[in-house]
Amino acid sequence: MYSLGSESLIKQAREIQEAELQKFYSRLMKLLQLKELGYETLDSLHRLHLILSANKYARTLPSDLQQRLLSLLSSPAEQFQVLSSALLRETPPSSGEELNNIQENISQLNTHAAGLLVSQARSRTDLNNLCAQLIHGLEGRPSDGPTRSLTFALPVLNSVLRLSPESLTEEHVTILSKKFVDWLRYASIVQGGGASSGGFFTGPRSRQPLPTAELDGSVSGDFFTVLCVGQGFTEDQWMNVYSFSMLRHWLLTYHSVSSGNSTMDAGKYSWEAGEKDERTDPKEKGDDRSEVDGSVVSMVSATSSSSRLLPPKERLREKTFQYCQRLIEQCDRKAQKKSDTELQKACMVEAVCILDCVCVEDPSMVFRTFPSIKALFGRLSSDLSYARVLLSIAQFYLNHGEMAAVDCECVWKLVFGRFPAELFNDPFLAHELLRFLRQNLDSLRLRAPEFIRFLPNFLKFLAWDSSAVVDDFVDLLPSLVTEGTAVEMLHTLLDLPCLSATLILQFRSVSLPISESSSRGLLSLDAFRNPAFRGLFLFLLRVETGSGHTIDRLSTLHDLLAEAADWPRVVRCAQVVPVLLHIYFNTVVTVAEEKLLAHLILVMLERSGLLLAIPTYSREIHRVFSCHLLRLCKLRPSLVVDQSHELLEFAGTTANVYSKEEVYTHVVWVLGEYLSVSSDSSCSVVLITSCFETLEAVLFEITSSAPPPGTVCPAPKVITTLMSALAKLASRSHDLIPRVSLFFSKLRTAARNGSVAWCADEEDLVAIVTRGEELWSLLKAPGVAQSVLTPPPHVLTPRWHRDTNLAVPLQLRVLTRLTHSK
Fold first, then answer.
1. Tens-place pLDDT, residues 560-578
2. Closest residue by Cα to residue 459 from 488, 420, 432, 429
3. Where among 105, 120, 135 does a domain terminate?
4. Cα-atom radius of gyration of the chain, to the nearest Å?
5. Disordered: where is this region (predicted)?
6. 3-class DSSP state of 514
7. Which of 93, 124, 186, 575 is 20 to 30 Å apart from 86, CA to CA?
8. pLDDT number for residue 137
9. What is the pTM assigned to this prediction?
10. Which residue, 275, 322, 317, 273, is CA-closest to 301?
11. Please, are residues 190 and 211 in contact by the beta-carbon 8 Å criterion?
12. Is the torsion defined by CA of 52, 57, 61, 63 positive or negative?
């Protein structure tokens, strides 16, 4: 929300009248015509931006004012460039003629002007023209450099290529590949900005440029990279930095270019290489000498000068390889500043990712690259502060480990084992690791199928910060459900709030010394440190599957964590569990056999009473269980007969009517619906009678006495479902009809005598009695009752509109001809 002052200014900007606005335009025009633009002009431009941006509809500026704003794009003061660009973005796109004038004058372009051209491009043709203009501007730049800097060009060009990769042509790829080679490999190695060594003789004639330095303070003895430091930088050094930041995207982009001109270009390579030998600039000659003599700092430079004979793309790959190898070597140096250490980590991530792209493009590079990557992993694997670097190394191993014939087991144990277990509270790593899993699911299934074993570990990210990573798990979960993990995964998802509480206790246990009592007096923290309960918490914190589906003392664990039920992190975690359970059940029915589905039904019945006591959590889980219990039984009706003993045991427990109302109602419904010969031929009269007697006993008990203390009356839905189930069972075994009819008769008599203790609402009681009378009436005609209460499949799924033996298709065809003219 805005402050009151801001709200007032925005309101004034929205309600400004047209006459007042025209006066403001005129005053601003006079200010812009002055030779020196001062604070008043700056303030007026800010006011104009507020007026334009506060309005929902774009305002059209007077043409002369728009021309002045366009001219401000080339102002020497950057604040005017920023403001004019922002103002023009708020207006309808300028005419093509005006934009073309800006675009054609490449020497006057800057970051803000080029950004405006990108934002106001009206078609891909405009983007193509801008792309070509920028590339040819970079190509035509002399080596000594004009007075106007073009360092803005690469970032803008990168934006254009992200929007429209098809803007590139084969000629553009050749030009940019050559320029990247020059900027990456042959940037100046002396400091810019007139840096000198100081001393007594520091006059202009004795001032000598200093070489760039490494992050550890030593003099840089090899070519310039982003990890070289100095008091100032030359323009080609800045282009080196920009080139490196764009390099990975470039390597991924230029493959989309059609190779129609590749044959023509191949004939030019040898001629260009020969010509370059004749006009080799001093930088390249110096590089050639280092290639022959060798460098004491790095062996990266020791490559053959014949690399210049390669086509531009292959030469760029070679120079990219050298650049990244030098970066990895520079990252081995101890930086003098902490910020430089973070820079080294970022550069290592980018270097490894770029080498991965190079090896994907040219598999022959794998054997040259793998030794350095393997050495880097060996050096960093013991330090988890380099986790993001190690994750990029894991990507390299995943893509190329099979070709290099290396064992990746140690990599997966580190990335899937230690990372989530010890860095579960690192949001950046959580995002990166889960993205790694999502993007590489197919490759992981093929080359590292053991990653599924670490499911309990991955869920620690969800338990710690569920709202941030739930979207990732919505995508990941279906891939992690297999027949081997299905049962354990169900238990683990249900225990997710317990895991969340345990991670909080683990975090507090480390940060709060044992000798120091907790300010809140957390009993759960004492229990976490108690060796007697250590096994319970260690099971929740397990790294891999296979330790068992669940634990015997779940109720004890829930008691220990009772005070965590209102912790915000635990509550948020509990809110995402129903969402994930829906995804889980939707997936498991596609991969599980009937035996596994039967086991899952038993787990649902068991765990419906073993949940952490969080407000609304149990109710939401019961709703999910009820929904998918119906779905499983409808998919496999024989499951009801197979698991009839367990289902009857659950339905025969009267306490479940009050504590698990939703699940209980659906269990009773599936018993009444699917306990029949039509669902499973092994269903016997004895089983139907046993089920009838069990449900009859429960219904009689809850309708003959008041509910237990501390509970409310059972919902009418429970009672009517029990009545319907008894009627269905009686229609399949006619010997039971007198018993259920007698019950309905007693129910009607009890209702006529006045209020009853088991139903608090009179309307509900009337509805229950009405349902009983309807069922009683049906049972007086057993044949009709069975057809109505248990209709055959062809009645449930009619195809009358397709059956040619009936009159309905003929009638439909006649009506169609009458209502639709030819």
1. 999 999 999 999 999 999 9
2. 420
3. 120
4. 38
5. 270-294
6. coil
7. 124
8. 79
9. 0.81
10. 322
11. yes
12. positive
In a domain, 500, yes or no: no
- Tell me which residues of the chain have a pLDDT lower than 50: 1, 142-147, 195-202, 206, 259-305, 515, 517-519
What is the pLDDT, as a whole number, of residue 280?
Answer: 41
| Cα of 453 vs its chain's centroid, Å | 21
* Residue that terminates a domain, selected from 120, 141, 169: 120
Query: pLDDT digits over 244-297, tens only?
Result: 999 999 998 877 665 443 433 333 333 333 434 333 444 444 444 333 333 333
Q: Quick one: pLDDT at residue 477?
A: 95
Which pLDDT value is given to residue 210?
86
Tokens of 543: 């790294």
Reduced to 3 states (helix: H, G, I; strand: E, B; else coil), residue 482 is: coil
Query: Is residue 692 domain-resident?
Result: yes
Amino acid identity at 370? F
Tell how far CA 383 is from the center of its chain: 26
Residue 586 maps to a domain: no
State the pLDDT at residue 106: 53
Sign of CA dihedral 236, 238, 244, 249: negative
Domain hosting 720: range is 679-821
Which of 387, 412, 384 is closest to 398 using CA atoms?
412
Q: Which long-range contacts (CB under 8 A, 24 or more apart) does 157-165 make?
A: 157/131, 157/246, 158/246, 158/249, 159/115, 159/118, 160/118, 160/127, 160/130, 160/131, 160/134, 161/131, 161/249, 161/250, 161/253, 162/249, 163/118, 163/127, 164/124, 164/127, 164/128, 164/131, 165/253, 165/256
